[in-house]
Amino acid sequence: MAENHDVYPVTVAGVQRDLRLFEIKPGVRIAILNILGDVELVQAVSKELAKKLKDYHAEVLVTAEAKSIPLIHALAVDMGLPYVVLRKSYKPYMGEALQSETLSITTGKPQTLYLDEKDRKLVTNKPIILVDDVISTGSTLQGMRLIMNKAGAKIVAEAAIFTEGDRATWSNVIALGHLPVFVD
């Protein structure tokens, strides 16, 4: 039996989606953007973001795992750049990884981000762009900034498909749209 869920309709890069509303705490809901497996949306937003980011002359794109991986891959193809994924768990093959802690709005729990030793060499002294699917509280973005600063990377831009909420000012983030936070 199919359940009815409240949704928030959006159109981004010419593609329309109904985003399911998800309660993150009593009386507060957010519209969930899940781009995993959505090839049409990922390709459309990647092309639009690539246009907005081309003049920043980055040499590497950086994101945190996991939902933004399809976006950064498509963006890397569109821009002809390599990319790095900051991992959420440490694996022994990662060597002397750098790390920073972040708090996810969707899980409500602290998460640690890790920069693999091999990827560290790729970003050191390079102009990079931080990329995420949705920037809400800015915690993941801050975690990515901390690691990139430790690695000696030069952050030239920060980008997302959407910014969300009014908790922080997102004037510095290059985004294709903005999502509200729904308070009952």
Walk me through this protein's architecture.
With 184 residues, the protein is of the alpha/beta class. The chain has helices at 39-53, 69-79, 117-123, 139-151, and strands at residues 7-12, 15-25, 28-32, 60-64, 83-86, 98-103, 110-115, 127-135, 154-164, 173-179, 181-183. It has one domain (38-177): Rossmann fold (3-Layer(aba) Sandwich), CATH 3.40.50. The strands form three sheets. It has a five-stranded parallel beta sheet with strand order 5-4-8-9-10, with helices on both faces. A four-stranded antiparallel beta sheet has the order 1-2-3-11. α1 crosses α2 (69-79). The longest helix is centred in the N-terminal third of the chain and has 15 residues, at 39-53. It is globular, with a radius of gyration of 16 Å.
Notable characteristics:
40% strand, 184 residues, Rossmann fold, 4-stranded antiparallel β-sheet, alpha/beta, 5-stranded parallel β-sheet, single chain
Structural class, please?
alpha/beta
Q: How many domain modules?
A: 1
Alpha-carbon distance between the two ends: 27 Å
Strand order of the largest sheet: 5-4-8-9-10
Secondary-structure element pattern, one letter each? EEEHEHEEEHEHEEE
Helix content: 25-40%
Give the CATH architecture. Answer: 3-Layer(aba) Sandwich
Q: Can you tell me the residue ranges where pLDDT is under 50 for at least 5 consecutive residues?
A: none
Largest sheet: 5 strands, parallel
Strand content: 35-45%
* CATH class annotation: Alpha Beta
Count of individual helical segments: 4
CATH topology: Rossmann fold
Write down the Rg.
Answer: 16 Å
Mean pLDDT: 90
Number of strands: 11
Shape: globular
